Amino acid sequence: MKKIPLLTAGPIAAAGILEIPFYLLPGFPVMRQKLRANGPVRMASVLAVSSLLPWLAYSLPTGLFEWQAFGMLLLLTTAVSFWYVVVPKGPWRDIIFVAGLAAVVAGKLFDGVYLTPLPKVPLSVLGHAMLIRTAALSILELRGEARAEYRFWPNRSEWLTGLRYFLLLLPVTGAVYWGLGLVELREHPLNLLQAAGTFFGILWFTALSEEFFFRGLLLQWFEQWTSSAIFAMVLTAVLFGAVHLGMHHQFPNWRFAIVAAVAGVFYALAFRRNRSVQAGMVAHALTVTVWKTFLR
Asked: Is residue 249 very low, low, confident or very high in pLDDT (cuts 50, 70, 90)?
């Protein structure tokens, strides 16, 4: 349909297909257990090597392989994979790890590593998928003691809780969005099929990863370290907003960061209601879907 040459489309499709099973792996405890049975060093080695494979699958055939990009990717994947194997246990270990992930995303490192032969088809999404699943596996299996469940499908209670807090946040975030002058309606809203595709894409990618790291990990760590649930929610929301400072090719995008921080409070409330990442995922995905469906 797009008349993309097969020699270009083939390697890109192969890279995406290769990444999918690795991305799904953290959501299946049985597979994680089999991976963990090999020992921490071997498991970290598997994570590091698997993180390079999709990039190599498309960069070599398309002629986009660059040694500098390969070196940056190798350094990043090795650090994420072996962090909890070599760094001594302690709160600062966790803070540096999550801060490093946020810096990679906010700094848009993957734009310079996952080069694309198609100007309108950014491939940095492959890097984000790789980072999410590698970091999640590192947290769940190499660090351990994570009180957050990495799961793709919410149960009935989590769907209802997510919907409830979405309805509560909608007028509040809508008022903030309008007050900051960000409201700009789409001339043609997304149709039902597009909206459904957007919802599940956000649910299983953006919402799952952000809720797992911000509410599933950071929120609970801050509660544990400060003994204050309210302070933990506020601090996590502020950090959540800060990660969105680079949205829409503008930095610092303070207005959007404020909206994200306000929404982050409601995602935290949804999480606390069920002590479930998936409840926050539902509220998060519904919010972003409404925004993408009706607003520019």
From this structure: low
Say if residue 122 is in the same domain as residue 160: no
pTM: 0.91
18: in domain: yes
Report the candidate in 234, 239, 224 with the shortest Cα–Cα distance to residue 268: 234
**Residue 266 and residue 283: Cα distance in Å, rounded?**
8
Report d(CA 73, CA 92) in Å as an integer: 24
Helices 277-294 and 156-179: crossing angle, nearest 10°? 40
**Sequential DSSP letters for 116-141:** -SSTTS--HHHHHHHHHHHHHHIIII
CA distance between the termini of the chain: 26
Q: Are residues 33 and 71 in the same domain?
A: yes
The tally of domains found in the chain comes to 2
Co-location of 131 and 199 in the same domain: no
Task: State the chain's maximal CA–CA distance in angstroms.
Answer: 58
148 DSSP 8-state letter: S
Percent of the chain residues topping a pLDDT of 70: 99
Domain holding 12, by residue range, is 6-143
One-letter amino acid of 75 = L
Looking at residue 222, its amino acid is F
Q: Is 208 in the same domain as 275?
A: yes
